[in-house]
Prior knowledge:
Order of helices and strands: EHEHEHEEHEEEHHEHHHHEH
Number of strands: 10
Helix content: 25-40%
Number of helices: 11
Structural class: alpha/beta
Largest sheet: 10 strands, mixed
Mean pLDDT: 93
Radius of gyration: 18 Å
Strand content: 15-25%
Shape: globular
Low-confidence stretches: 206-212, 272-277
Amino acid sequence: MELPLVSVIIPTYNRLDSLSELLESLWRQTYRRLQLIIVNDAGESVDSMKELYPELDITIVDMETNGGHVRARNRGLSYARGEFVLLCDDDDLLLPTHVERMLQEIGDADMVYSDVEIFDYDLEGTTRRATKRFVFAYEHDAAAMRKFSTFVSSGCLYRKDLHERIGLFDEDMYHYWDWDWFLRASDHAVVKRVPVASALYAFSQNGSNMSGMHEDMRPYLDRLSAKHGLGYLPTKNFFLLLEEPEVRERRAETEVLWDGEPIVSRRVAGGADRLDQ
């Protein structure tokens, strides 16, 4: 019996170095039947990725204008041939057994998501080497997830026909689109946490993309709350929220797999210079 195809949707914008690291991590997967859909959101060309990783089934979709990451994901969905969809940001990474494990776990569910390791890093050339890392693992508590989401979209796997039930990603939710997706999926399908930290979530050296621009994010948080009836939600710094007693109580055990070593892409090993000539 033929193994199911997994369509991996990757929106990207001017981050060739981290994108190539992600492709390296996907090339290392123990589960090989993958369709990679790279949606270039009107940034610099990503065509070189096909030359760097010719073994991978890569579809490149070039957006005509920059429409944002949520719209890019929806465009990518229109090219998905797989029975399953896996989401991943262009600067995150997946450990080698990630896809295989997610497929093993989804039998009695419609969507599964893993725990993650969040890491800060320094650059060695263009390769990211972790300087700090911590495990992000929390119990799947439906009521608590309406107050503070511990769902990380990178690495989540779901049945593509879920979109037939709940529609596409909400393009009006530039921020909190993933929380919105989780809540909608939970209302209409079976969602399950997998207790393994097999996805790696990168954040910038000063941590700015973790704390966010609170004033910019407030309208989206209010929109999310109104849409799902969540009540007032605070826009505190991410790390401060993790120290709230009700969040600390949700911390869970998980399987840690990463040895902390960087994932070095072929782009670093002379590939980029060769392709640019």
